[in-house]
Design brief:
This protein has a single domain, classed as Rossmann fold, CATH 3.40.50.720. It is of the alpha/beta class and 265 residues long. It is built from ten helices and six strands.
């Protein structure tokens, strides 16, 4: 299907380089007729290639630290000045200083833990609250955040990001109620397969559980391209009655206990 997002405007947070799911979403959104602003933290802009993506999508980059209310207010003001009310927002933001610095889960630095929660979860609430208070989203708009099954199950190498993702998913349900009641705005999370992104590959033992999930999932791991397709579907009018959901996009991994292939290995 073509032009699923024709005429729709939005903000895409978190594109860093071509390995980012947000990068893939931006390209697909452009392909489907959307216009949008790209945003990431100033430090990420220096490390990534987001300006190349902006050029490919004929758009602009507006730096914003998603943990800063002031930055988010400025971003939404600029976006609304350009587009009026918006139709979609993607939150693809996550980082753990404890993971970055190889701190074991049983030896967490709690100041860093709070930073993990602020960047990876509370930033989602801040994005939604700023949008809500500014009446930045049209009725039937769609907000999507990316998460992982470590919010429900234990993956030791995922560390304190597991708590952050659990909080993120809870925010989607809670804010989804309030935003849905007031403006029919949909809020969902996509629980994606382990994916070879810059952030994902930084998790200790990532390559091992990437292979494990790929073998266990009936369809194999979902790619970043297919995640982008699913995100576009959630942005579109085809999913108008889907909200407050954590949607597993993982090739069936979340529903599998054991497979014959594993039992015979």
């Amino acid at each position: 299907m073509n032009n699923l997002l024709k005429g729709k405007k939005g903000i895409i947070f978190g594109a860093l380089d071509e390995n980012s799911i947000a990068w893939k979403v931006a390209l697909k959104a452009k392909e489907q007729g959307a216009e949008f602003i790209l945003s990431n933290a100033p430090v990420a802009l220096r490390l990534g290639k987001i300006n190349e993506l902006a050029e490919a999508c004929s758009t602009e980059v507006i730096p914003a630290d998603a943990t800063s209310i002031e930055d988010l207010e400025a971003l939404f003001d600029k976006a609304m000045s350009k587009y009026g009310q918006l139709d979609f927002v993607l939150h693809s933001i996550g980082m753990s200083p404890n993971v970055r610095k190889n701190k074991a889960y049983t030896e967490l630095n709690y100041d860093w833990f709070l930073k993990t929660l602020d960047i990876s979860a509370l930033s989602f609430h801040k994005v939604l609250q700023v949008a809500y208070q500014k009446d930045a989203l049209k009725e039937w708009s769609s907000v999507v955040a990316l998460t992982y099954i470590a919010a429900q199950r234990t993956f030791p190498g995922y560390n304190d990001m597991a708590e952050a993702k659990a909080t993120l998913e809870s925010i989607a349900r809670s804010f989804g109620y309030h935003y849905g009641t007031k403006k029919k705005v949909r809020v969902n999370t996509i629980s994606q397969s382990p994916t070879m992104t810059t952030a994902g590959s930084g998790v200790k033992g990532f390559d091992v559980f990437y292979d494990y999930a790929d073998k266990l999932s009936p369809l194999g791991n979902a790619s970043s391209d297919s995640c982008a397709d699913f995100t576009i579907a959630l942005f579109s009018d085809l999913t108008r009655m889907v909200t407050m959901q954590n949607l597993f996009h993982d090739g069936g991994f979340s529903s599998i206990g054991m497979t014959e292939a594993f039992m015979t290995e």
